[in-house]
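It would be a great kindness if you could assist me with a short task in structural biology. The matter concerns a single protein, recorded as an amino acid sequence and a row of backbone structure tokens. Kindly check, if you would, that the fold set down in the tokens agrees with what the sequence suggests. Thank you for your consideration; the sequence and its tokens are set out here:
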Amino acid sequence: MDITSLIAKYDRAVPRYTSYPTAPHFSAAVDGGVYAGWLKALPEDAALSLYLHVPFCASLCRFCACHTTVVNRPEPLEVYGVSLMAEIDLIASAIGGPRTVRHIHWGGGTPMQLPADTVLAVMRRLRERFDVSPEAEIAVEIDPRTLDADAVGALAEMGTNRVSLGVQDFDPRVQQAINRHQSLEMTEACAARLRAAGIDAINLDLIYGLPHQTTAGVIDTAVQALGLRPKRAAVFGYAHVPWMKKHQSLIPEDILPDAAERFSQRQAIENVFLAHGYTSIGLDHFALPDDPLSQAASASRLRRNFQGYTTDAAPVLLGLGASSIGALPQGYAQNLAGVPAWRDAVREGVAPIARGVALTEADRLRRAVIEQVMCHFTVNPFEIAASHGADPSGLADAEPALRSLQDDGLVTRDGDRITVTAAGRPFVRAVAAAFDAYLARGVARHSVAV
């Protein structure tokens, strides 16, 4: 089948599979009481990861699908920091006793929109209530347009050892369409300040499929981005979901690239990074060969969570802050998305959970299969079923989709092993979807696969 036909058949709306079941299938059946019980039941030796969500930005990018809002006064930011520390106390007390933390990720929004002294106070509280490992990865998402000297100093003082710089695209016409004006020179200056502060592990975020983007244009952006000497790059396809994020309606659909052009842009960016010595990681990440992400991929230790591809193997991810999602052995739980409601719940001493899902054994089996597909492009469902003590016939509903994928050259079969072909890698979300028992229920809308 030619690429045009493959795109027409498989570039459909499917999840990104940063969890399974995916967030649209969460419900209010998981509330603060359920979550508190899950926390108390955690094994004493369970290592933790922490995700802190800061839902504030200085301006709103039209492409953004994050839970964030524009705030330019310090008072709401300071109050949010106080509430975040109160939630840390609440969750740590529910767990009981300090637990080892191996990863801390600050996301948003723009985490460093918080005042520098507020960020430092929150970080101190984390170290007081948890046993943060000296080798812990402490990663922060950065907007180069707003990072000032105080923020750089705070990043260094809090022990940050990895940052992700939002780049998206350097073409001024694209930037105008998405309301994000950021020159290469501004981004270079940001990277230089971070390196001068001792933070050398710099990741970049790029996006294809944005309004007015062309294949030639994204190649130019990728080449310029390489001049920043990133350790990693994440290259995401723009998810146009105006039914979820109303401000995306400000982007006229007739200036978006079509499916064939999106595919061309994705392949072009990948070719640039591969030609410059980067390793392809999963669907949309690239890393230098000596980066821990590349090493995890080559050793089959790569994992996938709400931040994308990761080296984090901790069995517990605690979400802190409005809208953040946590993953525990028992299931997933998402905090209230509205800041006032989240803050009020914390003040009342209640875990501020809005919804979640308790995992069944079938969910755990399918999640393991899907993660193997997304991370390593190969899976033996029978081996995974055996490791879960499950009957592999429970996955039989995937067979029709797998046969179609095989007929179209996107997967091969060797006995019970399924392997995504080179041609199938851009469509790996469609391969993972073959094992998704929730997708056919049609209760959610997703972005396209490529």
Summary: The chain has two domains: 22-358, 361-436. The chain has a mean pLDDT of 94.
